[in-house]
Amino acid sequence: xxxxxxxxxxxxxxxxxxxxxxxxxxxxxxxxxxxxxxxxxxxxxxxxxxxxxxxxxxxxxxxxxxxxxxxxxxxxxxxxxxxxxxxxxxxxxxxxxxxxxxxxxxxxxxxxxxxxxxxxxxxxxxxxxxxxxxxxxxxxxxxxxxxxxxxxxxxxxxxxxxxxxxxxxxxxxxxxxxxxxxxxxxxxxxxxxxxxxxxxxxxxxxxxxxxxxxxxxxxxxxxxxxxxxxxxxxxxxxxxxxxxxxxxxxxxxxxxxxxxxxxxxxxxxxxxxxxx
Length: 276
Prior knowledge:
This protein has helices spanning 16-21, 43-52, 74-87, 116-133, 155-166, 174-183, 188-194, 230-243, 259-274; strands spanning 7-10, 30-33, 57-60, 91-95, 98-101, 104-110, 137-140, 169-173, 200-206, 209-212, 218-221, 248-251. With 276 residues, the protein is α/β, with parallel strands linked by helices. The two termini are 23 Å apart.
């Protein structure tokens, strides 16, 4: 499965009418959070079915907890497999993060210590997920705000090892890369260069919020509630120069702008793809 090399958006109810009436080629695809559709019917499924007839679909999971210390939820995997079989998405992606503890689900994507024990666990979970879902999973690089003393590997090296050992792909969230590298005072281009760019199957672009930490240093928050920043556009251009054209998603989850405003970002990204 693979997405066409175009630009898509996250499917929101606010944009449904415009998406259904969009001229052919305006959007390359749409993406939805899989967990919003783990029911048998209802308006979300009616809307998604109508859109799916018009364009390719990407499913984005947010709660598999691939980095968690406990076993994956096999019932959740089964529900995701039913959704995949129902809609035959062009891609399925998840996060390098954890979100479960015992019986509790934490509604956040929490960071990992990058050591050998975590690497073995993440690889085992990715293998299990790919087998259960019947797809090649794309793993997304995280936006983080702290690092662990227990880490033995750089994040890019850790992601590379997971990709090489499991055969999964990489969902390169350029905005997350800018956020993390700013927060940890890392060299952005060095980080991007060290990623397995040959495995990138999709790119995400989004806005972020700017704050300061207790030391007065810049602190970026992965908020998905603003226009794409200049730093992200510049990093996106750099990435495309090394990967070639790749399917790209414009993420906006809060403070949704008018559709025509979002479409301007879609068109800007599409123009950059066409220059490759």
